[in-house]
Structure formats: C-alpha cells, structure tokens
Amino acid sequence: MGGDKIVFIKICGIKNESELNIVSKFRDNIDAIGMIVGNTRSKRRISLETSREIVKKSELPVIAVSTDQSYEEWIEIIGIAPDGIQFHGNIGPKDVEKIREKYSGFILKVFEVERSVEDPFDESDRILNSMEEYDADAFLLDTKGGGTGMKHDQRVSEKVIHEAKRPIILAGGINAENVSEFLKADPFGIDISSGVETNGIKDERRIRSLLEHVYGI
C-alpha cells in the first residue's frame, strides 16, 4: 500500500472505539470515517454520546450520517462537532441551506439509485438536475435503501460522475473483489461499510485487502 493517492476513501458505519482503532491503523490510506446517528433504523446506528467520544478520539475526519431528522435534531448532531454531515432521505434544498447557516463543516448529500434502471439516461439527468438545487460540497450515490451491500445501476453513476459539477462519491456493495469496477467510473471517492465487515464488525483483513486492491490497480 501507499504511493500516490488514487481516490478519497471513507469507511462508514463505525460503531465503537474498537472499530475506530481498527480503521485508524490505515489512516495513511483512508480519508474519513462515517458514523450513523439520530433517528434511523440502521443496524449500525449509535447514540450521540458514543458518537461524541468517537469524534474526540478519532485521528481521521468524522462524518455524521443520518436520515430524515428535524432541524432541531440536526442541530443536536452538529453539536457533537463532526467534520462533516451526510444527509440521507428526503431533506429538501431549503432545509440544507438552513442547516448550512449553522454549520461550516463539510456537507454531503446522498442520492439513491435503483439496482437496475430502465432508462439510465433519464435517471441520470433527474439526479443531476436535483443536485443543482443543493448547497452541498459533494454528493454520494448509494443503492436505494442504503446499507444493503448491493450495487446500483453503474450506468447512472458513470453519467452523473462525468457531468456533475461537484465531486461524486460512490457507495453500495463495494468490496475488495469489485472495487476496480467502481474505480473505472473515475469517482472522486468511494464509501464502504459492509464490504469491510465480517459478521457485522469491521474486519482489519478485509480493510487491508480493499486498500491493496485500490493501490494495486
């Protein structure tokens, strides 16, 4: 591992200090971690108290990830001082703008893509047009449902990456065995969770394998 930086890498779904320590071993090759907080049904959700401790102890930038929260709930999440926040769900452009007034960190907005799309060109254009409405620093394309470990229609990703005016991060079903396929689309970054887990726990060997495949391409 090592060498020139190829792509922004975020390991998401950090649940505790033990997983933080595992990921931190690769801090020279990983750019950020994500933790899932707030009112969400994710099996990787952690409390604000735990997330606050992770923010304090992490040597890597931390992105707080959540879904449809109220404005007050997002302000509470911002209070744990993450380096970035990631919006899933149906949050509108005006709500993001309102939160931006209170938060100067990195903002990432997620758009979901079906596993298979009938017309990838129309779907890509729909997403690209929606992106123009948001005051976000970057966007993430994930498989519909999020955290499924399933890939979405890469034809959509390729067109969005090629035409978007801001950085695009890919997520959904990425692992060591298929990461080269995702990188062919030339995204700004990749976001991995289940692809570096064994039985729902972050696995040092799987993280190492992923990074070796990235830097071996």
TrEMBL record:
Transmembrane stretches, start-end: none
InterPro entries: Aldolase_TIM, PRAI_dom, RibuloseP-bd_barrel, TrpF_fam
EC number, UniProt record: 5.3.1.24
Coiled coil spans: none
Record's keyword terms, sorted: Amino-acid biosynthesis, Aromatic amino acid biosynthesis, Isomerase, Tryptophan biosynthesis
GO biological process: L-tryptophan biosynthetic process
Pathway(s) per entry: Amino-acid biosynthesis; L-tryptophan biosynthesis; L-tryptophan from chorismate: step 3/5
Stretches assigned to the N-(5'phosphoribosyl) anthranilate isomerase (PRAI) domain: 10-212
Alphabetical list of Pfam families matching this protein: PRAI (PF00697)
Keyword Isomerase assigned: yes
Catalytic activity field: N-(5-phospho-beta-D-ribosyl)anthranilate = 1-(2-carboxyphenylamino)-1-deoxy-D-ribulose 5-phosphate
One function term, GO molecular function aspect: phosphoribosylanthranilate isomerase activity
Keyword Isomerase attached: yes
Source organism superkingdom: Archaea
Family: Belongs to the TrpF family.
NCBIfam families given in the database record: PRK01222.2-4 (NF002304)
Protein's recorded name: N-(5'-phosphoribosyl)anthranilate isomerase
Organism of this sequence: Candidatus Methanolliviera hydrocarbonicum
